[in-house]
Amino acid sequence: MKISLPPPGRPNRVYPPGTPSLHGLASVITGVVVVCGLYFGRAVLIPITLSVLLSFLLAPLVQMLRRLHMGQLPSIFIAVLFALATLLAAGALITAQLVQLAGDLPQYQVAIEQKIETVQEKTVGRADSLMSRAAATLQRVAPSKPAPPRLTGRAARNAPPVPTPVEVHEPSPTPMQLAQRALSPAIAPIETTFIVLVVTIFILLQREDLRDRLISLFGSRDLHRTTTAINDAAGRLSRYFVAQLGVNLSAGGTIAIGLAIIGVPGALLFGVVAALLRFVPYIGIWIAAILAVFLAAAIQPQWTMAVYTLILFIVVDVVAGQIAEPLLYGHRSGLSPLAVVVAAIFWSWLWGPIGLVLSTPLTLCVVTLGRYADRLNFLTVLLGDQPALTPAQNFYQRLLADDPHEAIVQAERLLREMSLIDYYDRVALEGLKLARNDAMRGVLMPDQLQRINDALVDIVENLEIADGLPDRLTRTDAADTAGALLAASSADLSERHDSHLAAHPQLRPSTEKISVLCVPGRGSFDEVTTAIALQLLGRHGLAPMMATHSGYRSARADEPSFKDAPIICIVSLDAPESPPYLRNMLRRTREWRPRATLVVGVGVASALEGGLEAGATGASHAAPTFRAMIEECQVAASVQHVRHASHTTGAD
């Protein structure tokens, strides 16, 4: 017997309890059990679910009656009686309209027969003629078969006898049997309605007690989170039902009035049916539209009434879906369109037509719970209408997919809601941090790094002429500090300087922009980050120039462009970690340019660890974002203007 041992240095792997594989298997088993319970327990669960949803719908009415100083019990009974009266009225109206429509059908018998004959001639008649010609052609081509011989004489006498047909007559049903047959289809709906109303009353009576029991059952350790989840689900469902009911009633009333004007019989019936079926997402109103269009096409020899009916349903559905619903609840029930369709298929498979009507509110409950229950969060991601990725994640994902065009389209869309500097801070900078983390982990290959940098350059160049919302830079603490340092001298200096310029306008200082030298770190994405800083500095009234990391180290302070820049920005995504090379770079910069204002970013939230203290005449500032960097540079530029003014006044 051969025994295989693990290689040296690689011990047997032992999976501790609670590994992801076991968790996944337990989740699958739990899901299967829940689905089976929903399917086999539908006879009990459907009335309870209807009761819970009806209680959500009646809760605003009960609260309104309670605000009118009515007791709890009278308010609940009035609300339930109102719901029952509405259901009975709708049922009676539908029955009356059906009876009237059935009585009026003989008047349209001739038109219906003509339309049926026309349709048969255009469809079945042509198909029958084609099949007849094909059969005749096949009969001519195929060889004829000899007819079977007729039996005569003894053969005919020995042939088996032809069976005699037998008819079975049932006794005529008694009046009791007729009544049972007529009422049996209505017994189940009446029974379900009675159960739903009774359970709804008890839910409304013990609403607070049920809420407390749910909190104790699912989240007594985190009362805040559980209470927020229950209140959010209840409020969202109540708003959704009330708004949807109002839209559906308005759409049904409009359809009834329009069909009556067009002349379609049973206009009120189709209006009620359209209002009820519109609770079924996407396809409900079109079921009513098909029935109305068929009736309009059947009762009129022409097609005018059918066309007008179809146009009416299209206009009402577009107005209700694209104007009324967005105004009432933002056109966002919390579910994505695909989730609504998938939920309709799933719940109709489980619970039939009732599941189709309840699919949207049930799925909305599940998605709302997933926002607060960690184990159900995947349902919110799959079925919810919130974006699956943040803008920064989407930005970086487009770079990984080598699709800078989509990233540019995303930037143009976001710039309608934010300024360019906010886009760079909230989206591009966060995406660059994600890219840097992957580069530090070594998961990005050199060719992929090059492609990402090229795509980033393309994006920055395309945003050179982009226009977002107007940007309002606010003075930061650094700006206030700089202003405070110069406040004592600036007031007197400005007064003397303004009077001097009024007497000698030729000495007015030039409008030349203050130079800002931007030096990137040696990180994988520091150069493109510096390019973003250059673009923003140029947009905000400064004169930026860029030096490469290696060129800045070799040129030291001898390069004229480096030597004359009063502001130096060290731009690196490595700034939060303050690596040794960056600390050495700051130290050398302070030695070379002791009077220059040094701004370090981005991503660092405070002074650099291990960084140098501000010199006697210089200052070091940390900028966590591009906005902070621009503000620090503007403050430094203001200081330079004041110094220039003081030198000019002193020379004079």
Can you offer a commentary on this structure?
- By secondary structure, the chain is mostly helical.
- The protein has four domains: 48-106 and 190-205, no CATH class; 223-383; 391-465; 485-499 and 510-651, Response regulator (Rossmann fold, 3-Layer(aba) Sandwich).
- Helix content is 69%, strand content 4%.
- The chain has 23 helices and five strands.
- The chain has helices at residues 20-40, 42-67, 72-104, 109-141, 154-158, 175-205, 207-218, 223-262, 267-277, 284-299, 304-329, 337-370, 377-383, 391-400, 404-414, 420-441, 446-462, 477-503, 526-539, 549-555, 560-564, 580-592, 626-651; strands at residues 515-520, 543-546, 567-571, 597-601, 619-623.
- A five-stranded parallel beta sheet has the order 2-1-3-4-5, with helices on both faces.
- Helix 22 links the parallel strand 3 and strand 4 (597-601).
- Helix 17 runs parallel beside helix 19.
- The radius of gyration is 40 Å and the shape is elongated.
Helix and strand topology:
Blueprint: H1 20-40, H2 42-67, H3 72-104, H4 109-141, H5 154-158, H6 175-205, H7 207-218, H8 223-262, H9 267-277, H10 284-299, H11 304-329, H12 337-370, H13 377-383, H14 391-400, H15 404-414, H16 420-441, H17 446-462, H18 477-503, E1 515-520, H19 526-539, E2 543-546, H20 549-555, H21 560-564, E3 567-571, H22 580-592, E4 597-601, E5 619-623, H23 626-651
Parallel strand pairs: 1-2, 1-3, 3-4, 4-5
Features:
elongated; disordered N terminus; 5-stranded parallel sheet; 4 domains; mainly alpha; 69% helix; 652 residues; 5 strands; 23 helices
* Portion in beta strands: under 5%
The helix count comes to 23
The end-to-end span amounts to: 105 Å
Structural class based on helices, strands and sheet pairing:
mainly alpha
Count of strand segments: 5
Rg computed from alpha carbons, rounded to a whole number of angstroms: 40 Å
Note the run of SSEs as H and E: HHHHHHHHHHHHHHHHHHEHEHHEHEEH
Major sheet details: 5 strands, parallel
Low-pLDDT residue spans: 1-15, 474-511, 606-619
> How helix-rich are the residues, as a percent range?
55-70%
User: What would the principal axes of the Cα set say about the shape?
Assistant: elongated
- pLDDT averaged residue by residue: 75
Strand order in the largest sheet = 2-1-3-4-5
Number of domains: 4
